[in-house]
Amino acid sequence: MSNLVALDNEKQDLIKRTICKGSTKEEMELFLYQCNRTGLDPLARQIYAVKRWDSRERREVMTLQVSIDGLRLVAQRSGEYEGQEGPFWCGDDGIWRDVWNFHQLPFACKLGVNRKGFRTPCWGVARFDTYAGRKKDGSLTQFWEKMPDLMIAKCAEALALRKAFPQELSGLYSSEEMSNTESEYIPVDEKSKLTANQLIPEDRLNKLLLSFKEKEVEIDQLTELLGKDIEFFTMEDLGKLAEFYKTL
Questions:
Q1: Residue 60 CB neighbour total at 10 angstroms
Q2: Per the confidence metrics, is the pTM higher than 0.70?
């Protein structure tokens, strides 16, 4: 791909401190390689790195995620992208509609991507239960509860884009597709099984503890409150927060 991202040493250091915080040298090199391969700009949040706990590896691992705009941009730059069909949503009745105006959650969404030289669109079909992001108690996370039709449509679009452009988008997944993975949150009750390897700064921890006290947060809301910052916390950090809460 000719749309290489120009990242000088200063920008690479910035990425290391922010977008790829806590990454190893190899992970940083992999991230920069994908930025160059896809032509996506990490500083524009078109592509980013997420550190999650992998229960099989027993350590935090970096996964690459791309915004839906990033996927669209790669397809557009290919010169063979010819628009989309849909999205369409259906309920349990299996009837596809171009607008979802019901109070209940959609059952699935489908979207077709057109590519030059293809006779028919490449369709991506995403079931809501397969991709919906959920909290530990089983309820939907904030965006999946407020915008269920939009979130599942992004999943269907990502599936369709990878079908239409497998070479350009192979191995790249949107954050909406990854929102229900087991490593999205770290259970506090597993803190005793692990050791800390990346403690957050003491001043940051103290600010979080103070915010917990002021907001009277329930322990089971801990990961939800931390939001995307959860990827930078170890089990020991979460254990400290939980233990502190118990003393209030």
A1: 23
A2: no
